[in-house]
Design brief:
Radius of gyration: 23 Å
Number of strands: 0
Strand content: under 5%
Structural class: mainly alpha
Shape: rod-shaped
Largest sheet: none
Number of helices: 3
Number of domains: 2
Order of helices and strands: HHH
Helix content: over 70%
Length: about 80
């Protein structure tokens, strides 16, 4: 799996969300360094599970759309005397 990288602005947003979570839910203030360390840990250790789930969801959606296209093509097919 390729490493997923975020821009500095994106990573800052993610880190701020981690800090806000700790403050709102756990009533603990953590610094930017600790939030970034925690973000990197979860990204490396758990990120693949979320990434794979996203790929699976995309695969299911694509298969559904391809089935719709196949049905639409079948609907406009003209009758012929050819045997299938």
């Amino acid at each position: 799996m390729a490493i997923i990288e975020f821009s500095k602005d994106e990573k800052d947003i993610i880190i701020a969300k981690v800090q806000r979570y700790f403050e709102d839910e756990l009533h603990q203030d953590i610094g930017k360094f600790d939030a970034e360390f925690l973000t990197d840990f979860f990204s490396e250790e758990i990120g693949a599970y979320f990434y794979n789930r996203g790929l699976n969801d995309a695969k299911v959606l694509l298969e559904e759309k391809l089935a719709d296209i196949s049905d639409a093509l079948y609907d406009i097919e003209k009758p012929t005397s050819f045997v299938r």
